[in-house]
Amino acid sequence: MPNQWGRERAEPVAVGPPRRTMTRAQRIREARNRRRRRIVGVLTLATLIVIAVAAVFLGSKLWHTMFGTANDYAGEGVNDVVIQVHDGDSTTAIGQTLHEHRVVATVGAFVSAAEGNPAISSIQPGFYKVRTEIPASNAVERLTDPQNRVGKLVIPEGRQLDDVRDVKTNAVTDGILSLISRATCVDLDGEQHCVSAEHLKDTASTATPAALAVPDWARDAVTALGQDHRRLEGLIAPGMWNIDPSASPEQILSTLISASATQYAKGGLLDTALAMNLSPYQVLTVGSLVQREATPEDFAKVARVIYNRLAENRTLEFDSTVNYPLDRIEVATTDADRAQLTDWNTYVRPGLPATPICSPGQPALTAAEKPAPGDWLYFVTIDMQGTTLFTRDYDQHLANIQLAMGNGVLDSAR
């Protein structure tokens, strides 16, 4: 039997590719690459850890700011402060504003305090007086109390910038500047703060048209009057406005003029003026005359009289334009008043007055944009009920005037 142990041993079979023989330089380079890859891996891991920690920290901070109801102020607060609620603000947005002004400790505290309170949904855009560092429930109460709303400005149709006095009764009607001044008054920590009408008047006279946001279509007319504050007449539209009591006179006026220009544009003033081959400023001026000279039912007829007289190169001869720079109301002006040379007196000045003579409402502007058809050149109110007669015939107009005088309508009281 052959000796199996005496056989030759088989050589081991190599598995995989043959080993690559590297030079010493290659082995050093490979070691360096392995070391570099380990360093990069460590740095990447460290960066991810830092990012994760930061995310947790910031997320926690945001969570406590937005939703942490455990943190809330106590007590009666520190100082009075005015905050603004913008149109479309949600409860959370209002809470964020309060938090930024240090009124509430967290947004979440305010949202929780407001939850279930139906009055919170009735908060109107505007400015409100609250206190810093008060409980969120107190902030809700203050915002829903109408007494804490400040900066609310209401301008009735037909008001002019200055106060006017009725010649017969001596009653004074507040002008737009006085109305603005009153709207800026707010009591902060027991001290009354107001922007005076005189300060507003000075700003209206001296600030540049650009700084006052005067629209392009009124820029030339405003510039032509130099430093007369009446150059801004008519550029602040009637209506309800919200003004910041803490703003400067220039900021207040520019905000109102800019918003009014937008309102006029939305009402179609620019497009209609273009169609009528007039400037928007001219149509605005006609609207102011209509507002002062007529009652709403006769607005469109008076507008037609204005355009008819202008087309025939006749002076308008409106007593309202005599009264305007005199800051008074009087149905029948005197011969001396009608003879005064002013930029507004249409007895002596051809065409339209230098500026509007008041802030016309939309009905008066609509009449200026769409006058009634007719050939009238004259009109006069003949009784205390406001009945107004229109005619083209001058002799008939004189007869109508006698009728008005007989009814006491044209009594000057002077």
UniProtKB/TrEMBL annotation:
<feature type="site" description="Important for catalytic activity">
    <location>
        <position position="293"/>
    </location>
</feature>
<dbReference type="GO" id="GO:0005886">
    <property type="term" value="C:plasma membrane"/>
</dbReference>
<dbReference type="Pfam" id="PF02618">
    <property type="entry name" value="YceG"/>
</dbReference>
<keyword id="KW-0456">Lyase</keyword>
<keyword id="KW-0961">Cell wall biogenesis/degradation</keyword>
<feature type="region of interest" description="Disordered">
    <location>
        <begin position="1"/>
        <end position="23"/>
    </location>
</feature>
<feature type="transmembrane region" description="Helical">
    <location>
        <begin position="39"/>
        <end position="59"/>
    </location>
</feature>
<dbReference type="InterPro" id="IPR003770">
    <property type="entry name" value="MLTG-like"/>
</dbReference>
<protein>
    <recommendedName>
        <fullName>Endolytic murein transglycosylase</fullName>
        <ecNumber>4.2.2.29</ecNumber>
    </recommendedName>
</protein>
<comment type="function">
    <text>Functions as a peptidoglycan terminase that cleaves nascent peptidoglycan strands endolytically to terminate their elongation.</text>
</comment>
<keyword id="KW-1003">Cell membrane</keyword>
<dbReference type="GO" id="GO:0009252">
    <property type="term" value="P:peptidoglycan biosynthetic process"/>
</dbReference>
<dbReference type="GO" id="GO:0071555">
    <property type="term" value="P:cell wall organization"/>
</dbReference>
<keyword id="KW-1133">Transmembrane helix</keyword>
<keyword id="KW-0472">Membrane</keyword>
<comment type="similarity">
    <text>Belongs to the transglycosylase MltG family.</text>
</comment>
<feature type="compositionally biased region" description="Basic and acidic residues">
    <location>
        <begin position="1"/>
        <end position="11"/>
    </location>
</feature>
<keyword id="KW-0812">Transmembrane</keyword>
<dbReference type="GO" id="GO:0008932">
    <property type="term" value="F:lytic endotransglycosylase activity"/>
</dbReference>
